[in-house]
Amino acid sequence: MSNDPLDLGLRAQAAAIAAGEVDPAELLAAVLARIEQRNPALNAVVETFPERSREMLAAAPAGPLHGVPVVIKDEWPLPWRAQRFGAAELTAPTAPGESGPYRALRDAGAVIVGVGNMHELGAGSTGNISVYGPARNPWDTERCPGGSSSGPAASVAGRLVAGAIGADGLGSVRFPAAYCGLTGLKPTFGRAAMAGHHMAPVTNMIVSGPLCADAGDCRLLGSALYGEELTAGDAAGLRIGVVRDPVSEDVTPEVREACDEATEALRAQTGGEVREISLPDLEAAAVAGILIINSESMSGTRPEQLNALHPELSPIARGTLKYRMLLPAAATVQATRVRTTMRRRLADLFDQVDAIAWPTVPAPAPPLEAPLVELPSGTVTADQANVRGAALANLTGIPSISMPVGLSGEGLPIALQLQAAWGRDELLLDAAEALERANGRRWVEALPPLAQSSPAEA
Question: pLDDT averaged over the chain?
């Protein structure tokens, strides 16, 4: 394990600064230097602002994250920078401002050191499309880092920073966590800071969330976003529910084996049990989630704006934006009925189990140039495959966490997802920490090749 403060986790950096063992100004300078050295290979950070970062440090209160550098997704405005959503000029203008995540980080004493790349308009699970060019996966820079919080994840996995803030509307924190070998927490809807997000007034789907190396770091960074301490508890006797459905079975053999082993290790570590449960209509839930978030995204959009889209927007984005205007209201109404049904089913299920487990994504990170995955059912796009396991949490508002549980034969991360009842975010963190103990922290401490090189070599 490196003794370089740059390679410490979020908690360790905060503790070292608080103990006077690390000078935060020196750490900030070192982080900026590492971004300059490593970021060209990753394209994870699209903008730094050293003077603004130094100003944040000079004014930072003695909070739990005092002096700790973090990256924030291009989905959140800052007082000195408008968000761009990884896209060319938008149909609705954006402006600088104090978003909720910015205030949360500022008040905790953190230093925003850069803005993370993201999948264009947040409309993809791969991160391979952005006006800045695609972000790249530190485990293999020709692979997708996941989306839409691609840059935040790649910046943490590449050890540019120890923590980053993303946003999750249909899996956009969990997908990059899975592809990059990180822990990513999707909060219960309404618990994490959302002010300043362009869809905050209308969305019932999107949440801010932390991306870190392990669950303890996510607990610390998440506490800042939640505005309350996410206290550590005990996952003893954890009742884990598993479903026999394409979401858990139409996955690569390596993913299935790693997730089954992790589930059993978690059961053994907590002295709990694994129960097979039934959760019908998961495919309908995924479709409902897609319909609702697309309907929400139409808010304030006028036809004349869609006739004047910026030519640098990708053909996919241009088509998607116009497609939303064709969605029939009846489909959205039906989607809300599916949401109600799934909430009721989950409420019943969470009387029987504490957490539901299945793979975060059905296959490791696909190539950037062709984001396709080979599954038992055939070849499909990563987006089509990934949404099956992620949409339920956003549709219903429950919390979810993605954790690394192995590496594929090609050396790419494999991830397990846990979901719990509304408000039981802390239980998910407890369970993730139990799994880390069960596997000796093997996977949360695994480093991609790019992060194993010295700063001079990166």
Answer: 95
